[in-house]
Amino acid sequence: MTPAQAIAQLDRQLAKAGQDIAFRRGATEQGAWGKVDGYKPEQLVGLLTQADQEVIVSPTSLGSYEPKQDDDFTTGGKLGKVMSAQPRRMQNVIVRWNIVVRMA
User: Fold this and answer.
1) Radius of gyration of the chain (CA)
2) How many CB atoms lie within 10 A of CB 10?
């Protein structure tokens, strides 16, 4: 599988199961499409809490924007803060973002 194929596959999955999300850093706001899920109780280890959400985002909907820790986050009228943003790469190309958001 090539990076382009991996991104296209994720885009198809998010088209079916995703929702509108947005990131804000200072005056810059970036809308995107992502999958937002809560964590199961058995996944709440380390610094994760019940207020945390796992967000999966394709680089397609982010353009050149790269989410970072402490970015503001919104979805469905709810506010949160990015706790961590981990890019997943294939052949040095970002094919997915795994983000932890703490909802207010």
Assistant:
1) 13
2) 21
What one-character-per-residue DSSP string does the chain give? --HHHHHHHHHHHHHHH-EEEEEEETTEEEEEEEEEEEPPGGG--TT--TTEEEEEE-HHHHTT----TT-EEEETTEEEEEEEEEEEEETTEEEEEEEEEEE-
Contact between 73 and 48 (Cβ < 8 Å): no
Share of the chain above pLDDT 70, in %: 97
Q: Tell me the pLDDT of the chain averaged across its residues.
A: 93
Which CATH architecture group holds 3-103?
Answer: Beta Barrel (2.40)
pLDDT tens per residue across span 22-72: 999 999 999 999 999 877 777 766 677 777 899 999 999 999 999 999 999
Does the pTM surpass 0.85? The reply is yes
Distance CA 7, CA 88 (A): 11
Domain ranges of the chain: 3-103
